[in-house]
Amino acid sequence: MEEGARSCLLRFRHRLEQDIKPSYLMDHMISDGVINVDEEERIRTQDQAVALLELLLRKDNRAYISFYNALVKETYDDLANLLYDDLPQISANAHKSSSDGWTPHVQMVLSEGGVPQRPVVFVSRPELLNRVRERLYRLQKEPGWVTVFGMAGSGKSVLAAEAVRHQGIIEECFPGGVHWLSIGQLDKPDLLVKIQSLCFRLEQSLDSQSLHRPPNSLDEAKERLRFLMLRRYPRSLLILDDIWDSTVLKVFDIQCRILLTTRNRSLTDSVSGAKYEVEVASGLDENKGLEILALYTKTNPQGLPEEARSIVRECKGSPLVVSLIGALLKEKPNRWRYYLCQLQQKQFKRIRKSSSYDYDALDQAMAASIEVLPDEHQELYKDLTVLEKDIKIPAKVLSILWDLEPEEVEDILEEFVNKSLLFVDSHNKPYLYYLHDLQLDFLVEQNRTQLEQHYRDDPPTSGDEECLYWIRFLTYHMARANLSQELYSLMFSLDWVSIKAQIMGPAHLINDYVEYGPILDKEFQEFLSLNGHQLEQRPFPDVVQLALSQPPTSEVYRQALLQAQDRASKGKLYVDWLNKSSVESLSRLVIHPHQGSIYSACFSQDGAKIATCGASKTLKVFKSTSGEKLTEIQAHDDEVLCCAFSPDDRLLATCSSDRKVKVWNVERAMLLRVFAEEHEEQVNHCQFTNTRRQLLLATCSNDKFLNVKVWNLNRPSSQNTMFGHFEPVNHCCFSPDDTYVSTSSNDGTVKLFQVSSANEWKTINVSSMFTESDEEVLVKCSTWTADGKRIICAARNAVLLWDLEANKKMADCSGHLSWVQRVQFSPDGSQLLSCSDDQTVRVRLNKCVRDGMTGSVLFQSEEMSSRIRCTCMCRQPSVVALGQENGTVQVWSWQSGEGRVLKGHKEQVRCFSLLSHSPARLLSWSFDGTVKVWDVESGEKLQDIEAHRGAILSCHVSPDGCFFATTSADKTAKLWHCESWQCVHTLSGHQDCVRSCRFSWDSRRLATGDDNGEIRLWSVKEGALLKICSRDGKDGMDSLHGGWVTDLHFSSDNSLLVSTGGYIKWWDVEKGKALQTFYPTGSALKKIHVSCDFSTFVTIDNIGILYILQRVV
Q1: Would you place residue 1008 in the very low, low, confident or very high pLDDT band (cuts 50, 70, 90)?
Q2: Pick from 13, 474, 650, 719: most CB atoms within 10 A?
Q3: Measured between alpha carbons, how far is 173 from 528 in angstroms, rounded to an integer?
Q4: Of 4-18, 381-395, 448-462, 484-498, which has the strongest mean pLDDT?
Q5: Mean pLDDT, to the nearest integer, of 186-215?
């Protein structure tokens, strides 16, 4: 490596090690071939930034250049500028003005060779320029071809001319000179004239004796040129600009050094020699486009009008289009909005301006590319008008559209790709093809009048399940064709919902309903939004069953009921939720983003996105309208406890149990900052300031003292640390004007700190408001009213309003039955939202909060010494038995009021069963692992059985009274004889606690369910395993049953089984296969009551919703 480059790396080594993300940079450097995979692996096992810099210092100039280019690509512009001045000679002038590398000698050589001058408005593209020059250096020792290819207007010619405008290239590689020849679309006579002119120019520089008559044919011209290039100009470069035809190129196949520009990358396949390529595909970035417009209009880039940025975006990176617009604005500087509208309306013909380019309007350049195709291929290319932007498609899709064999389609697409009319993603198998935005815009503009007719004549459909394109975009194409009625019928079909959701997922479906909402109603969108998380289950749920939970007046329910009735007549099982009209859903969208708990979810400031994080250690971002996943990041090494958007929605902050705080770029899913050194315990919460004036981030943690910090993202360490709390801080929140930050702590206080000075301003002693109990008061969170004059805080089960000016409590909004975890005002301040461990969310009007109004108690149970866990009634004698948590059983006669206490269990009694009515014997079982048998009348303990090593979780007596079964936390179930009280069989095989059991009505089978959601069917006689219900149906995000299997019931004919857990499932007993699943609104269903005819089912979920379900017939 050159001394200057090495010295530069050493000089800025510390700053580079601090700021770079080596993994992204190494990907580019491996592509350039300057480091290998083994070196990358060694770097990854060390401090990556330090190791990468040490490796670079042992490399050559190419490694320095590659590292510089990687910094440019990854937008480390400030770091790239540090290295720029010491770039080795190969690219020392990549960024500099022409005077740096364009000496008078270079200027003379290029002028004599006919190389075009720089355009009046010129913007450098250093990355592409370096790649072309690197390829040219490969021609230093041997002849060969360097092909610069790309679509029309991508700047190939300017790039080729600029690549040779370099003293090092001229002196080291091409001391014989550089000779430029513009070709274009020429016939043979015109091509002969071009070569005659070139030969004359080359001979004119020699002595007069070397002059010959002009060659009369192409063959003679080829030999003359070969002689001149090999004998008289042996180390010179011939630049052929704008080559279209391989036959033209063969004329120049004379074993010399050639740089050519073309739209067709395959042209050099027909010639011999070494070949190198540079693709010009990406176009200009936004800043380069703005620079061109600023140069044309002689304006500072920061002073450009607001339309400038939109114009650059509409130009899609095309140097030609940006230059055309800039030239027009130079003469008509007041037409920014007019030309923006022309671009948005794809009026390419109106955007024209004479220039040095062969075409003065984009439509001419695009059309010229298409016109060289065979006639039949031109028509096929026009068919690509129906594709959607930014979508890559396999050849199989077009084989359906064109009605051709896939192999033939692949050949045609290869031709389009070679002519830069189409792009290919070769990283996928099969290959995927796509159009540049400008190409698609041009096709749409050219074929606008024919597009609708194309759809109507031949609407794209496919029965091929592998052809995902049509399943995803059929609605798009139907809408483009104005097939409104057909689109309505398609999207209001449960069959379509089922097919598309199963293959593409629910988010694409919801997007369709949002996109085409004006011609549809909202019923199906609401249905999908509320059930989308169910449609992500595997095995895929029955959409008809899900739709039966919709309101009875909806079209969704009507279709579902008709289909359910039809399928029920053929033996399919469906259940209808009879009392669903009594439950109103306030949800707009339900998603299931993470495995495990979700600790934080937040809206972006514009409401378009939702970010979530949790126990899965990931951060995910979704569309708020459809739940479509936009980003997924493996964010931390431990649980992610909080996430927050910045005021402009460009950044996301996360904090974690791993004690780190991270800041991410939302759009690129790229890590920007890590603050890992200062918090010593888990970081509980993070929040950005509310305004963009000075962007700060506040964090709070479980640290003992230094538990609240404010960070400036431009600094490696915290800007301020707030002192005052001596217990963990759960939440922090900026005031609306960002003057103060409020903190909520386990020490029972809310403290307000000044952001600028970090001084404590006020302390609110929340614990002093809970004088009725000695329990500690943990303040979970606090939030500000919109005017910044009041603070709401949550502690225990109360929500408290504090007036900062009066310094007193204004209201106490009790009502929750358990701890309140979060409170937040609506954006307009009219409503207060609170959520609690009682699994409810309450919305209160702010007026009620301000006035201190509280709700009345609706119900409160009588306080008892020990909770009642179970009851059992006996008719003869007329008694009721109560089982309590303290292990006692009380038997009461409801006629006489006399009671008897049966003592013996050491832990809580779980349930009872009557073994017989005459004499009345009661079976009780408990967490102490024992089963006891009692005489109900005398209270005598008849049997005391040590049944299990663990707690007994369920027990059931067979209908014939011969056996009873017990299940336990020891993962076993046991069968017992009711006369001998001996264990007949021990049933092993469950991998988790066995939670429930039930005998079939004929007493021949026993069903058991465990906490992993697995159900097993056993033979009572042999104790053998008969079936494991749907063992292969486990969803990766859940257990088999969405939770514990809590209850089981057989149908009267013993052919069906119903089970409850996270949801309700019906099973075929003989096959062990699931027949149907009902998903409740809540979860954790405990028991289900079943009618004798197995047609009606009643249960209740954990949030108190009652379900009365009836089989559809």
Answers
A1: very high
A2: 474
A3: 65
A4: 4-18
A5: 74
Residue type, 729: V
Average pLDDT of the segment spanning 919-923: 75
Task: Give residue-wise pLDDT tens across range 169-199.
Answer: 888 899 888 998 888 877 778 888 888 888 8
CATH topology of domain 104-279: Rossmann fold (3.40.50)
Say whether 51 sits in a helix, a strand or coil. Answer: helix
The tokens for 87 are 């770039």
* Superfamily in which the 3-83 domain is placed by CATH: Death Domain, Fas (1.10.533.10)
What is the amino acid identity at position 10? L
> Is the CATH code 1.10.10.10 the one for domain 286-447?
yes
Q: Can you say whether residue 822 is alpha, beta or left, with left for phi > 0 and alpha for psi between -120 and 50 degrees? A: beta
Check whether 863 has a pLDDT greater than 50.
Answer: no
d(CA 541, CA 484): 29
Residue 616: φ, ψ to 5°? -75, 0
Task: List the chain domain ranges.
Answer: 3-83, 104-279, 286-447, 465-577, 678-836, 915-1112
Output the six-digit token pair for 823: 């409170």
Residue by residue, what is the 3-state secondary structure of 162-203?
HHCCCHHHHHHCCCCCEEEEECCCCCHHHHHHHHHHHHHHHH
Buried b (16+ CB within 10 A) or exposed e, 670-685: ebebebeebbeebbbb
* Strand pairing class (237-243; 178-182): parallel
What whole-number distance in Å separates Cα of residue 177 and Cα of residue 201?
Answer: 12
Tell me which residue has tokens 């159900």: 1015
Cβ within 8 Å of residue 31, ≥6 positions away: none
Contact present, 96 and 89 (Cβ < 8 Å): no
Task: Answer yes or no: CATH 3.20.20.70 is held by domain 915-1112.
Answer: no
Lowest average pLDDT, out of 169-173, 203-207, 841-845, goes to 841-845
Rounded distance, CA 759 to CA 723, Å?
Answer: 8
Closest CA to 502 of 547, 534, 461, 457: 534
Asked if pLDDT for residue 357 goes beyond 70, the answer is no
CB 777 within 8 A of CB 795: yes
The answer to whether 104-279 and 465-577 have equal CATH topology is no
234, two tokens: 């042996």
The pLDDT tens digits of the residues spanning 59-109 come to 878 888 888 888 877 778 788 888 877 787 653 333 333 444 557 778 778
Tokens coding 1008: 């058991």
Phi/psi at 381 (5° precision):
-65, -40
Q: Where are the beta strands (DSSP E) in 401-549?
A: 423-425, 432-434
The arithmetic mean of pLDDT across residues 546-568, rounded, is: 87
Greater pLDDT, 625 or 145: 145
What DSSP character marks residue 861? P
**Which CATH code is given to the segment(s) 678-836?**
2.130.10.10
Question: How many residues are given for the chain?
Answer: 1113
* C-alpha dihedral, 203 to 209 to 214 to 216, nearest 10°: -120
> How far is residue 690 CA from its own chain's centroid?
25
CA distance 1021 to 736: 72
Distance of CA 808 to the CA centre of its chain: 45
Give 1047-1093 pLDDT, tens digit per residue.
999 999 999 999 998 889 999 999 988 899 998 887 788 889 999 89
Residue the block writes with tokens 């079976």: 923
Which residue is listed with tokens 């290039």? 229
465-577 under CATH 1.25.40.370, yes or no: yes
